[in-house]
Design brief:
This protein is mainly β. 4% of the residues lie in helices and 42% in strands. Strand 2 (30-35) and strand 3 (42-48) form a beta hairpin. The longest helix has 8 residues, at 149-156. The protein is globular.
């Protein structure tokens, strides 16, 4: 488990704000990745930098399925992404609370427990999101339910995760301070990053 909280793959929802300040690079850096210990299996929400799309992914021993939003984000603008994993055959990705794109490809995990939460890192593609001036990340929320379209829209309009389905919110990382965060990957390697103090630059309205 992760700090005493046991997470399973389905149902699950991940919400995150990000700001790209250096796109156009041939990487798919992870915003939030949930991994299974000992195997290269994960649930994630990431970015395709060249096409500027928000993407969700499921990687299992049986294969990987990525589903990208069809709307492009704008550099230097805070953007909201939300990935809703309802079941092994139902997943939906949103950008700014709209344009839901779904996938029904079956992905079944060999292990049912998520052991690690990676913020700003895609362990399978070995791609960082927080690296110099590439991305800012804030307001990460993880729920053990499938958020509704109205829930996602509420988050995209500025509600913090603590105010959206709080009874099912299992992890919340504001990432708005200046303290050092240590992220440990499933490989055992520790990576240290310093969150940027975003202040009034971030569009959160309801705190």
């Amino acid at each position: 488990n992760v700090e005493g909280v046991t997470l399973s793959q389905y149902p699950l929802s991940i919400s995150v704000w990000f700001k790209s300040v250096n796109a156009g690079i041939a990487l798919t850096p992870g915003l939030v990745c949930l991994t299974v210990a000992g195997v290269d299996e994960q649930i994630r929400i990431d970015i395709t930098q060249i096409t500027r799309r928000v993407r969700m992914g499921v990687a299992t021993v049986g294969g990987t399925t990525n589903t990208a939003n069809t709307t492009t984000y704008t550099d230097d603008v805070w953007t909201h992404g939300c990935a809703v994993f309802t079941s092994a055959t139902s997943r939906t990705i949103y950008m700014n609370g709209a344009n839901p794109i779904s996938s029904a490809t079956s992905r079944v995990f060999t292990d049912t427990t998520i052991s690690t939460i990676e913020i700003g890192y895609n362990i399978i593609d070995d791609a960082w999101a927080i690296n110099g001036t590439k991305f800012l990340i804030a307001e990460v929320g993880i729920w053990n339910i499938a958020l509704s379209a109205d829930d996602v829209l509420s988050l995209a309009k500025g509600n913090i995760p603590l105010r959206v389905r709080p009874e099912s919110l299992v992890k919340y990382f504001p990432l708005t301070g200046t303290s050092v965060e240590v992220i440990t990957g499933a490989t055992g390697a520790s990576h240290t990053v310093t969150p940027t103090a975003i202040g009034n630059d971030h569009p959160i309205r309801f705190g």
